[in-house]
């Protein structure tokens, strides 16, 4: 057992600040951008850095719960989380039953495909247990953080600002790695890529252009996170929120996304542009068209000036950009794309072969989210997730219409767009959404909805009290008037 440099920082820090659960959540958002690092290495397995503050936060809040501490939004939070909890129960039970029920009857892609090199016969394995543990921890963090963040003395807006600040951190790391790949600037690989359980792809090239993965295991994973930041910043800026650095984070994250040369990132942005009119219609904010026009004009001016300066200073960038464009458009002809497509096709075939029940969580690993989910948790689990997503989206839309622009509405708008960016990217080329910071974002969204619900209830109660006092005053005034008349 060894403790890498990330762990040497996180363990003492979380130990000292254990009694400050809000601070643990801020630390988690920063540690969440280091998924390829390890806080602790046991054998050949590495503990992700975000796990340390997450477990510290969960343990403290659970201790408070045992001592009788309750939070004002518990009822609303649990009502919103209940469908997801049912899906998790189904998933855990299925991971124990399905691999034994369909044992040696179907072929699956294992979790560690690089050690096998192809499909294997289905059988119970350690992946069922390990993935269940991760899922339970992720769900616990989502539910507990959502309940905790309904406290009145917790600033949920500051937590969202920390999320944006973590985006700046990834942008800086991208620029650092780019300078390392192009000019040989020292770059601490041993710090960012200390997890032995990850296959880190930090030397890939797109023709003459280096592909940037920052602190993530591969460029696509980095692009997925940057899409969350980009989607969130664009939406809150269009909504008119004044967040320091949010406007500048849009071009910065877009440039970092371009440096990854990830087809996943480019496709996600394209889908986001198509979804933008739908989001405008759902929110009923037709006034955003003017903001969109200003953002497009400003963005075009910045991009145009940047391209002009770059082409003038570094003329070699033109053929390099052409090479990147060609490699992106010809992605479907690459061997890696064909391999991933085959994995998705095989995974979808498992749905029919298991009568829609799936092969069990942790038994199969596809290339994208939907085939991976359907092949493991089956149609029942997929329907459960759709119900959860639909209820959450409906509650979020109702909440944002209930309150004027403020901290809760900012978090709802920012988290909805960030989660949309992550889900779209995962549907394109990620088998799971297993990072802890992603589940914290869901918890923040649920907490914001619950806080709006609490505010609405308080308003109703205050109005009722005011009406009662008016009626009481009228009842006292009428006898006086009658006495004077007599």
Brief summary:
With 486 residues, this protein is mostly helical. The chain is 71% helix and 3% strand. The chain has two domains: 1-69, no CATH class; 73-485, no CATH class.
Characteristic terms for this protein:
486 residues; mainly alpha; 2 domains; two-stranded antiparallel ribbon; globular
Describe the protein in words.
71% of the residues lie in helices and 3% in strands. The protein has a two-stranded antiparallel sheet with strand order 1-2. A two-stranded antiparallel sheet has the order 3-4. A two-stranded antiparallel ribbon has the order 5-6. With 486 residues, the chain is mainly α. It has 16 helices and six strands. Helix 4 (74-101) packs antiparallel against helix 16 (436-485), helix 8 (219-239) runs antiparallel to helix 15 (407-429) and helix 15 runs antiparallel to helix 16 (436-485). The chain has helices spanning 5-16, 21-31, 51-66, 74-101, 126-148, 156-183, 189-192, 219-239, 246-260, 263-283, 288-313, 317-329, 335-353, 369-402, 407-429, 436-485, and strands at 40-42, 45-47, 107-108, 120-121, 205-206, 209-210. It has two domains: 1-69, no CATH class; 73-485, no CATH class. A hairpin with a 2-residue loop joins strand 5 and strand 6. The model has no long low-confidence stretch (mean pLDDT 85). The N and C termini lie far apart (94 Å).
């Amino acid at each position: 057992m060894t403790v890498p440099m990330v762990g040497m920082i996180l363990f003492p820090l979380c130990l000292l600040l254990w009694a400050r659960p809000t601070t643990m959540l801020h630390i988690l958002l920063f540690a969440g951008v280091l998924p390829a690092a390890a806080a602790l290495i046991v054998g050949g397995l590495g503990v992700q850095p975000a796990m340390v503050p997450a477990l510290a936060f969960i343990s403290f809040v659970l201790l408070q719960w045992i001592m009788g501490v309750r939070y004002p939004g518990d009822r609303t939070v649990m009502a919103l989380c209940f469908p997801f909890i049912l899906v998790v129960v189904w998933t855990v039970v299925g991971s124990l039953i399905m691999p034994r029920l369909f044992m040696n009857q179907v072929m699956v892609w294992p979790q560690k495909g690089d050690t096998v090199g192809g499909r294997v016969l289905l059988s119970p394995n350690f992946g069922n247990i390990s993935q269940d543990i991760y899922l339970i921890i992720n769900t616990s963090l989502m539910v507990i953080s959502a309940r905790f963040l309904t406290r009145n003395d917790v600033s949920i807006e500051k937590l969202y600002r920390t999320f944006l600040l973590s985006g700046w951190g990834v942008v800086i790391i991208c620029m650092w790695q780019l300078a390392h790949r192009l000019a040989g600037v020292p770059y601490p690989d041993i710090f960012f890529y200390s997890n032995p359980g990850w296959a880190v792809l930090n030397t890939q090239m797109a023709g003459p252009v280096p592909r940037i993965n920052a602190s993530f295991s591969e460029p696509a994973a980095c692009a997925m996170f940057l899409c969350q930041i980009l989607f969130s910043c664009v939406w809150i800026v269009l909504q008119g929120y004044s967040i320091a650095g949010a406007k500048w984070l849009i071009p910065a994250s877009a440039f970092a996304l371009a440096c990854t040369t990830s087809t996943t990132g480019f496709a996600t942005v394209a889908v986001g542009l198509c979804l933008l009119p739908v989001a405008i219609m759902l929110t009923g904010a037709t006034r955003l068209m003017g903001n969109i026009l200003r953002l497009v004009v400003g963005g075009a001016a910045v991009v145009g000036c940047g391209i002009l300066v770059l082409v003038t200073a570094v003329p070699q960038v033109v053929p390099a950009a052409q090479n990147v464009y060609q490699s992106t458009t010809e992605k479907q002809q690459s061997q890696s794309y064909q391999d991933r497509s085959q994995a998705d096709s095989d995974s979808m075939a498992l749905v029919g072969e298991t009568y829609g029940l799936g092969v069990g969580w942790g038994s199969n690993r596809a290339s994208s989210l939907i085939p991976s989910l359907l092949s493991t948790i089956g149609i029942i689990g997929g329907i459960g997730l759709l119900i959860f997503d639909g209820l959450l989206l409906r509650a979020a839309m109702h909440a944002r219409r209930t309150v004027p622009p403020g901290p809760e509405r900012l978090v709802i708008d920012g988290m909805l767009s960030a989660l949309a960016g992550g889900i779209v990217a995962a549907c394109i080329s990620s088998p799971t959404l297993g990072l802890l910071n992603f589940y914290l974002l869901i918890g923040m969204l649920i907490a914001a909805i619950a806080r709006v619900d609490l505010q609405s209830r308080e308003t109703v109660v205050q109005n009722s009290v005011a009406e009662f006092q008016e009626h009481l005053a009228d009842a006292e005034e009428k006898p006086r008037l009658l006495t004077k008349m007599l």
